[in-house]
Write a structure and sequence with these properties.
Length: 223
Amino acid sequence: MARSSELVLALLVAAMVASSPSALAYDPSPLQDFCVADKSSPVFVNGHACKNPTHVSAADFAFAGLHTPGDTSNAFGSKVTLVDAHAVPGLNTLGVAMARLDLAPGGLNPPHTHPRAAEVLTVVEGEMRAGFVAADGTLFAAALSAGDAFVFPRGLVHFEFNCGARPAVGIAGLGSQNPGLVRVADSVFGASPDVDDHVLAKAFRIDADTVKMIKAKFAASKK
């Protein structure tokens, strides 16, 4: 009987946890209609402090610019225009963000992760090859055309590459007001202070001189 009671109690606790909003959303769940970010507040919280509702306007919920092509005249041939809580204060506490991705022919959005958000990408112009790498090393990738969508699970390394002959454009939805961005190559070869050469040489199975050469390229790109 005692074991049966313990099982019932465990099931009740599990049900309560599963039904809790905190278990269903990664970002803080809103407790009011909106909490427009007050960027001038000195208060440090997980997100942004709320602006006084009497000072809120429609402009706090609007963003202009996703119709404008991003500048892809860079080494990667890509540009991401992010619409997060920093760009739109009204997104604060709502747990969502979006982005426009522009890729020149042959352009690449290099392997990266969003530590706080899953992502769904919809191609609106051109062609892309997009994919992510699962924790066991399996690559899931697909060729996408206008109207196609692809999902990237939260925290997994993923990329987009323009495999077509003309510029490509995608619109992404992200499950956090502040998804975060960690570019794989930048984070290991462009870190400051530097990651030890021997650590990277052993991790990537290359020699220390090659590590130094790669680091020099990242250092030059920051100047």
